[in-house]
C-alpha cells in the first residue's frame, strides 16, 4: 500500500522544523560534506535535509533496529539506512565520523515499551561511539523527556565527553505521525558534546 499523501505533508512539516534546529546549532558549517552517523534513526526524515544543508557529497549512514520499517524506508526512498543494532556498531559501520547524531533516542534505562525491566545498555553505546569519533567530532542528541535529558548528561559526563550545549530546545518540531505516534512535538532537549580531552591528544 502506498504511503498516504497526508503523511508526506506531516513529514515535510517535521523536516522544516528540524532544519531550523540544525541551522540554530550548526550555523557555521566547519565540515563541508562530512561523514554523519545517525543512530536510532527510524524512518530517517533527516536524510535529505542533512545532505542539502551540509553538502551533496555528505556521507550519511543511518542505523535502526526495527526491521518492520524496511518496507516504509523503501517507499520513502531512504538510501542511508541500515537495519542493525546500535549495541553492535562495529558490525555495521567503519571509520570515523565528523558528526554522530541521535534524535529522540529511547534513553529510558529501566523499561521497554511493554513495562518490562531491561538492561541499561546506553552507557556501553556511548562508550562505543567514541571509537568512531575524531578529535574534533561532534555528538548531537535530542531528547523528548527531561529524565532522558538528565540521564544522557550523566552518561556523557561519566565517559568524559565535554558537553558544550545542554538546554531545552526553543524550536518546535512537529511529529511526523509515522515514526512517532500522537501529536507530541520532538527534540524538546538538545545536547552537543565533544570528545574527551584525552582522545584529542592523539
Could you explain how this protein is built, in words?
This protein is an alpha/beta fold and 202 residues long. It has one domain (5-200): Rossmann fold (3-Layer(aba) Sandwich), CATH 3.40.50. The protein has helices at 5-25, 47-54, 70-75, 89-92, 122-129, 146-158, 197-200; strands at 35-39, 59-64, 81-83, 97-103, 133-143, 162-168, 173-174, 185-186, 189-194. Strands 3-2-1-4-5-9-6 form a 7-stranded mixed sheet, sandwiched between helices. It is globular. It starts with a helix and ends with a helix. The model has no long low-confidence stretch (mean pLDDT 88).
- Report the CATH architecture: 3-Layer(aba) Sandwich
Kindly, what is the distance between the CA atoms of the first and last residues, rounded to a whole number of angstroms?
Answer: 51 Å
Instruction: Estimate the mean pLDDT confidence.
Output: 88
What is the radius of gyration computed over CA atoms, rounded to a whole number of angstroms? 16 Å
Question: How would the global form be characterised?
Answer: globular
Taking the sheet with the most strands, its summary is: 7 strands, mixed
Low-pLDDT windows of residues: none
Give the helix/strand class: alpha/beta
Spell the H/E element sequence. HEHEHEHEHEHEEEEH
Please give the order of strands in the largest beta sheet: 3-2-1-4-5-9-6
The total of helices stands at: 7
β-strand amount: 15-25%
Strands, total number: 9
Amino acid at each position: 500500500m502506498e504511503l498516504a499523501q497526508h503523511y508526506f505533508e506531516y513529514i515535510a512539516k517535521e523536516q522544516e522544523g528540524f532544519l531550523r534546529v540544525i541551522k540554530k546549532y550548526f550555523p557555521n558549517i566547519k565540515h563541508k560534506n562530512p561523514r554523519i552517523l545517525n543512530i536510532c534513526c527510524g524512518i530517517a526524515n533527516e536524510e535529505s535535509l542533512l545532505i542539502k544543508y551540509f553538502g551533496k557529497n555528505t556521507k550519511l549512514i543511518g542505523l535502526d533496529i526495527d526491521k518492520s520499517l524496511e518496507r516504509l524506508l523503501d517507499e520513502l526512498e531512504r538510501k542511508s539506512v541500515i537495519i542493525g543494532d546500535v549495541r553492535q556498531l562495529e558490525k555495521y559501520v567503519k571509520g570515523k565520523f565528523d558528526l554522530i547524531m541521535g534524535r529522540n533516542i529511547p534513553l529510558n534505562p529501566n523499561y521497554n515499551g511493554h513495562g518490562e525491566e531491561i538492561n541499561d545498555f546506553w552507557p556501553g553505546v556511548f562508550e562505543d561511539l567514541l571509537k568512531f569519533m575524531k578529535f574534533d567530532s561532534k555528538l548531537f542528541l535530542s531528547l523528548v523527556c527531561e529524565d532522558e535529558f538528565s540521564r544522557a548528561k550523566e552518561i556523557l559526563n561519566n565517559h568524559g565527553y565535554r558537553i558544550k550545549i545542554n538546554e531545552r530546545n526553543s524550536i518546535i518540531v512537529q511529529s511526523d505521525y509515522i515514526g512517532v505516534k500522537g501529536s507530541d512535538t520532538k527534540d524538546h532537549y538538545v545536547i552537543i558534546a565533544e570528545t574527551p580531552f584525552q582522545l584529542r591528544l592523539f
